[in-house]
Amino acid sequence: MFAVLSCVSHQHDLRLVLIALVICVAAIITAFGLFDRAQRATGGFSRGWVLLAGLIAGSGIWTTHFLAMLAYQPDLIIGFDFAGTALSLLASVFAMTLAFGAPVVAPGPTGQIAAGVIAGLGMAVMHFTGMSALQIQAIIQWDLATAVSAVVVGTGLAVVAFRLFGQHQTVARRTLAGLLFVLSILALHFTGMTAVVLIPDGTVFLSSEALDRNDLAMIITALASGLLLACLGLLWVESQSQRSTLSSLRSSLDALPTGLAFFDARSRLVVWNTAFAELMVMRKAMPARGMPLSILTAACRGSTDGKTVNEQRWSDGRWIRVKAGPTPDGGAVILLRDITDDKVQAEAMMAARDAAQAANRAKSEFLANMSHEIRTPLNGVLGAADLLAREPLGAHQAELVQMIHASGQSLNRLLSDIIDLARVETGKLQVTAEDFDLAEAVDTAAALFGLKAAEKGIDFRVEIAPDAHGAVVGDPVRLRQVLGNLLSNAVKFTERGAVSLRVDRPDGASGPYRFTVTDTGIGFDEATRARLFQRFEQGNGDVARRFGGSGLGLSICRELARLMGGDIVCDSAPGAGATFTVTLPFAAAAERAPKAASISLAAGAGTPMRVLVVDDHPNNRRFLEMLLEHAGVEAVCANDGRAGLEAWQSGDFDAVLMDMQMPVMDGLEATRAIRDHERAAGSGHTPVIVISANAMPEHRQASEDAGADLHLSKPINAAELLAALAALDPVAERAVA
Questions:
Q1: ω into residue 585 within 30 of 0, thus cis?
Q2: 653 touches 599 (CB < 8 A)
Q3: Range 657-683 average pLDDT
C-alpha cells in the first residue's frame, strides 16, 4: 500500500492524476446508469443499453489509464506504439461490454460475479497491453507478485461492485457501487505501475512511428472531451426524461380524486397531490415539503361513529377513508378519499332495500291472511259439494255439483300457485329431503289425471322403467306438484290422441332421473316456448280464453325443479303436441325399515270412532260433522280452543280435529295444553289432526312443534281426511270405511 502511494506521489503528476480520476468517475457512473436501464429493458433495447454502457465504461477506463501514463514521470524519453495503444482501447471496450452483458443474460449472483471477473480481467488485459505499447530508453522488468496482486485486487473490487449494484435498488447504494468500481480501476492501475522496475539503457531507441507524449495527450484530450460530452449529454437526456416523467406523474397524481402523499424514511412529506392538499386545507393543515408525518396524521383524525377505524367522519360531516402503508425505501404513503357520496348512496340503497323488504313482508302477510280467509269458506264449498256428490242426485244436479267441485278445485289450485309465487319472490320457497318410493309418488300424481283423460276419451299411459323403481331421497310433495301440473296441462290441451308419462334413467344407475310428459295436443311455436316459463304466460290469448288458467304453474314448476337440483325443458310445434322433460338428481335412499304405527289408540271392536271437531267457523264445523257422520263416525263439536280443551277433558275421544286460528284460545295452544295434560296425568296419547287454512311450511312445522300428529290444509279433501282417520287402527279403518 505504501509503495503504491509512494509511486503515485513521487512518480506522477498529481494534477493529471486528478483529471484522470474525474473522467473515470464520470464515465463509470454514467455507464452504471445505462447498465441499470439495460437490466430493466427487454429485447433490442436491452442490448443497445449494454453496448452503450460498455463503450463509455471501456473508453473511460482506457482514458484513465493513459492519462495516468501521461502523469507518470520517470525522467526518461517515452513513446507509445500506436498499434498496441489502439489494441488496448479495443480490449477495454470489449471487456466492459461483456461484463455489463453478463447480468442481463444471467440475472442473479452468478451473472453479477461473472461480470466482476470479466471486468477485472479485462482491465488487466487493457493495462498490460497498454504497458507493452510503452517505448522508453530503459529495460522494463516486473515484480511478478505485485503485478498478480494488482489483478487480484482489481478483480475482487469489481466483483464486489457488481454484487452491490445488483443487490441494492436505491440510488445512493448504486452510486456507491459505481465508486467502488472506480476504486478497482485505480487500484489495478497504480498497483500495476508499482510493479514496474525501469533499468535505464541508452542503447534502446524509440521507433520513429511511436506516439510521443504530446501526440498521446491530443488523442486522450479528444477522447476525454468526447467522453465527457457524451456523459453530460446522457445526463441531460436522463434529467429531461425524468423531468418529463415526473411532470406526467404529477399531472396524473393531480388528476386523481384520491388524496395521495409520500413520506421519506424520516417520516417527512416529500410529494403530494392536489386532492390531498385540498383535504388538508379543510383541516387547517397546509402541506409543505418536509412537514412531519405526525402533524398530518393528527389532522386526519376524526369521529369514527362506530365505523371501521379507516373510515372517519370529520367535523364538517364528510366521511373520509384513510389508508396508510409503508414504501420499499422505508417511507410511508397516505391515501385520503372522500367517501361522503358513497355513504349517502349506501344509506339510500339500504333504505330502499329495507322498504322493499317491508313491502315484501307486507305482501307475504297479506297473501297469508288472504289464503286463510279464502280457504276457510272454500273448505265449506268443496265440502258441501263432496257431501252432495255422495247423495242420490239426478243427472242435472250431479252435473251442477261437479261444476261446483271443479271450480272450487281450480280456485284452490290458483290460490296455491299465488302463495308459491310469493314464496319464490321472497326466497322462501323450500324443498325437503326425505325417503320415499319414487314409483308410488309417480303413480299417486298420475292417478287423478288418468280419470280426467278417460272422461275426455284420450289414452293415458304411465311407464316407469325398471331402473327408476325404488326408494330415493327428495321431496315427494313437490315432485307430485311438478308432475301434476305438467299432466294437468297435457290433459287440458289434448282433445284427441294420448298423454303419456315415462320415468327412466338414460345415463344409467349413476345418472339423474328423467320424467317425460308427452301429449298430442295443440302444441306451441318457438316464440311461445321462449316465454312459456315466465309468470302469467300462456300460449296466446285464444288459449287463455278456451282453457283458462293463471299461467303460474310452469313458472313455479321450473323454480321447484331447480331447487331440487334439476331443470325443465320443453319441445313442441303448433298442432304436433308437446313434450316436457324434467330432470332431477335424486339420490338413492337407504333401505327403509317398515313404518311403525305413529298412533296406537284403537276404538273398541264394532264401536264407531268418537272424534272431537274444534273449529270457530260454523260452516266448517257442520261440513266436518256431516262428513264424519256419513262415514259412521260420532262427531262432537266445539267453537274455540278453550271449549275444545274442556270438551276433551270431559270426554273420551279417539281423535281431535283442531283448527289453528280461533278466538279465546288458538288451536296450537289447545294442542299444547292437551299434551301437557297427558304428560301430567300419565294418560294415553290422543291423536290430534290440525285442519287449517294456514298451509305454508312454517305452519306445518308449528303444528308439529305443538304436538299435533298431522296437518291437513283447507279446503279439506274428504278422502284424505277419512284416510288419515282410517290410519289410526285397523278397527278404526272398518269404522270409517
A1: no
A2: no
A3: 90
